[in-house]
Amino acid sequence: MPIEDGETNKGYKKSLAITVSSTLFVFHGLLHLMFPLFLLLRVFSPPEGDGLTHAWVLSIMFSRMFTFEGVVSILFSISHIVIGVLLWNHEKIGGYFGILLGFTTALLTILFMFNPQDIILFGISLFSVSLIILGWEHLE
Fold first, then answer.
1. What would the pLDDT profile of 5-61 be if each residue is shown by its tens digit?
2. What stretches of 1-140 show up as alpha helix (H) in DSSP?
3. Distances (CA, A) of 106 to 53, 63, 135
4. CA-CA distance, 87 to 60, in Å (whole number)?
5. Which SS3 state, helix, strand or coil, does residue 6 take?
6. What does residue 112 show for φ and ψ, rounded to 5 degrees?
7. Euclidean distance between CA atoms 128 and 83, whole angstroms
8. Are the CB atoms for 134 and 17 separated by under 8 Å?
């Protein structure tokens, strides 16, 4: 049975599980939004100081890859934030997309696990999905 923390103005019980899952989705989206914005800014900003730096030369060489990865990651991040808002409003469509995106994120994390923080993101994704399933009856 989901943990409940009171009534909302729509007259249904607000689930703490859905609220926490919503917060995790928004946090995940904002966290992932920082990296691609940094990549895109780095690719299109001129170098500081004298001459070309090593990072600038690499970013020019791989600018197409960085730009593509950055744009895809921005779209992925925005979808996390949108799903978080839908879950915050207890929309059932947010639950469907949240489960789909949570499992997709977990699968992509397993396939492309490069950093230790990817293990944390894998755990957050599965935890978010389990919270959605736990609070499913509170979605409209």
1. 555 545 445 789 999 999 999 998 988 888 777 766 665 665 565 555 555 555 555
2. 16-44, 54-61, 63-88, 92-111, 116-134
3. 36, 27, 20
4. 40
5. strand
6. -120, 40
7. 11
8. yes
